[in-house]
Amino acid sequence: MTNSTKTRVLTGITTTGTPHLGNYVGAIRPAINASLDPNVQSYYFMADLHALIKSQDPARIQQSRLEIAATWLALGLDPTNAVFYRQSDVPETTELMWLLSCVCDKGRMNRAHAYKAAVADNQAENSDDDKGVTMGLFSYPVLMAADMLLFNANKVPVGRDQIQHIEMARDMATRFNYLFKGEFFTLPEAVIDETTDVLVGLDGRKMSKSYNNTIPLFSTEKELLKLVRKITTNSLEPGEPKDPDNCSLFQIYKAFAQPDEVAAMRLKYQEGIGWGAAKTEVFEYLNQILSAPRERYVALMQDPAAIEKILIQGAARARDEASPFMARLRQAVGLGHFA
Ligand code: TRP
């Protein structure tokens, strides 16, 4: 199959934090699996320009970019197959963002949920609607549209909160195609994985950095054990039957184990396995899955030059496509060469 007939799967990872088990189950694992499909060409990038919207802490952004790159590589992403790059290494992205900004209704952006939430918070405290709102936050969906449209992505795996942004990208693409009379852009589609969407955290809520209830993917063995021990359970004694379906520990196990292993654990719950024993089993299971990638991760983190090289190669591949495409788009809007 040639590259141009493959389905293009693209997704971005905002580089503000340290990857945790929830990121793995919800995004990294399905993305790496998708990249192995011979009918797919995948584009995975670090959305480091998006990170600037949320964080003005250069050290944190730099560290997060390195950790995220090392994580994906350690977990088996093959950068000679997937196009793996930093958004900021592909300047065509911001150039396209401007072209899209000029065909995108401001009123439509007023309804973007991140912006609306900021306005609602301001109104709740009787402040000016736009207090603390940067143009970066406001234009977030336009930058994201540029990410997708630049590579004519067909499928975009994301969390539910991102569906609106993909719809906005489709609107921008449609409008651009109409105004400039051509099929320049493919309309991207959101892909939401219903089964692995959300992993619960230590306290039973969604595992999320903002709830401070995460298990970092590459915690040391000791930290991993400590965190698994912290997963909230209840006061039932060993010997008393336990309900797996309302149990964070079980949900976390289930996100990793095979169906027959999950069935066996379910039985142990019914037979009254003690919390201590159940936690030891879950820890051992996770640790056995994570220990090889953890070693690769530690080695990669000690060799930033190797990661840099991979990302520069990824950006070159991305730009091989993006740059001629941008030239075509410039031409279409009236910014082409004179001769
Ligand atoms: N906004 C996305 C998020 O926070 C990250 C992202 C940036 C993205 N650009 C993208 C996701 C393009 C998919 C496609 O999750």
How does this model look, in words?
The protein is mainly α and 339 residues long. Helices cover 55% and strands 8% of the residues. The chain has a three-stranded parallel sheet. It has a two-stranded parallel sheet with strand order 4-5. Strand 1, helix 1 and strand 2 form a beta-alpha-beta unit. Helix 4 packs across helix 7 and helix 4 packs parallel to helix 13. The site of tryptophan has 12 residues, from strand 1 and helix 7.
List the SSEs and their pairings.
Elements: E1 7-14, H1 21-35, E2 40-47, H2 48-54, H3 58-74, E3 83-86, H4 92-101, H5 106-110, H6 113-124, H7 135-150, E4 155-157, H8 163-179, E5 189-191, H9 221-230, H10 248-256, H11 259-270, H12 275-301, H13 304-333
Parallel strand pairs: 1-2, 2-3, 4-5
Helix pairs in contact: 2-7, 3-12, 4-7, 4-13, 7-8, 9-12, 10-12
